[in-house]
Amino acid sequence: MRRREFIAILGGVAGWPIAVHGQQRKTIPRVGFLGLTTPAAHARFLEAFRRGLRDLGYIDGESIWVEYRWAEGQYDRLPQLATDLIRDKVDLVVTYGSEGALAAKRSITTVPVVAVAVGDFVGAGVVTNLPRPEANVTGLSLLATELSEKRLSLLQDTLPQLGKVAVLWNPGNASVALKFKSAEAAARALGIQVLDLKYNSPAELTRAISAAAQAGADALFTADDFLLVAHATQTAVLARELRLPLVSEFREIAEAGGLWSYGPDLRDIYRRAATFVDKLLKGATPGDLPVELPTKFELVINLKTAKALGLTIPPKLLFTADEVIE
After folding, report:
1. What digits encode the pLDDT tens for the residues 239-284?
2. Which end of the chain has fewer surrounding CB within 10 Å, N or C?
3. Cβ–Cβ contacts within 10 Å for residue 137, how many?
């Protein structure tokens, strides 16, 4: 009997780590991440988000679990992917862009949603009130619509003889449609003719950029979305081959070979998204957390591209640039 009792005790002890591990896993918060493109295309932003979590004491895979779902550019998949995350019993969902935010809002009602890098929360219909978001969605805005005039003004400073600008935009993205309207109005006020170029796939990007060159556009102005960012190199290389100065909202385009970019620091926005996750996991509700605006803006100038196009960047732009690529 003593031998059997000893074996039984050993069996119980051997089971302790497994039981404790199982209990720990149940108590670790689970965050769903609803992605529009691919992990590779979004790698630098994911790293900024994870860095924000680490700064707050969360280690992915240890003290927090992040479940990823990727639409790979097929936005019609977003509602099903959002539903899959809820089926996996996540505690909240993080997504980005207007299309991610709208898909999450329509498909997710039982957990909070943190929407990151949305061009225009109110204009796109994600929320009706920035200080007191209703329902279950809050997050961080890009202020994209308001900055169109600033970017066009900078473009006019860069190209004083600017007469016709091709605006490249994705009509399938609600915020981008608003960006196009604001860019069109700003160009009209500045006396600049606008060439309307739509795309909703990589193949259409190539066609639209080629059409801009054929129409005699003086420059290419992008109303950016994450589909464009995912194909930044394709866009920038073709624009440079066609000798079209390309200006953008996101630094990724300038780094890939565009002329310059001016807009919010996306990596800072993703890092700050972790603060929303932390507060919501600790009991806050989306209505307690106002939609936040960008706090860091950056002007990135690619001098290599300027030289390749035979352009001289005005000294005042170079002086105010946050980064110059040489």
Report:
1. 999 999 999 999 999 999 999 999 999 999 999 999 999 999 999 9
2. N
3. 24
Lowest mean pLDDT among 11-25, 83-97, 301-315: 11-25
Q: What global pTM score does this model have?
A: 0.85
Dihedral sign for Cα 261, 165, 142, 58, please: negative
C-alpha span between 6 and 68 (Å, rounded): 46
Average pLDDT value for the chain: 89
Three-state DSSP at 84 gives: helix
Please report where in the chains the tokens 């991610």 appear, as a residue. 100
Question: Which two structure tokens, joined as six digits, stand for 50?
Answer: 């994870």
Phi then psi dihedrals of residue 66, to 5 deg: -110, 120
**The residue type at 246:** L
Q: What's the token pair of residue 199?
A: 């795309």
Q: What are phi and psi of 40, to 5 degrees?
A: -65, -45
- Tell me how far apart the alpha carbons of residues 259 and 314 are, in angstroms, rounded to a whole number: 13
Q: How far apart are CA 39 and CA 317, in angstroms?
A: 34
Strand 297-302 relative to strand 260-264, pairing = antiparallel
**Angle formed at CA 193 by CA 189 and CA 198, multiple of 5 degrees:** 110
| Rg over CA atoms, the chain | 23
3-state secondary structure of 94: strand
The model's pLDDT over 21-58, given as tens digits with 9 standing for 90+, comes to 344 445 899 999 999 999 999 999 999 999 999 999 99
* Residue predicted with more confidence, 52 or 6: 52
Amino acid at 181: K
- Rounded Cα distance, 322 and 268, in Å: 14
- Helix ranges (H only) for the chain are 2-27, 43-55, 78-87, 97-107, 144-158, 174-190, 202-214, 226-230, 232-241, 251-256, 266-281, 303-308, 315-320
| 71 SS3 class | coil
pLDDT band of 6, cuts 50, 70, 90: very low
Sequence-distant (6+) residues with CB within 8 A of 102 are 124, 125, 126, 174
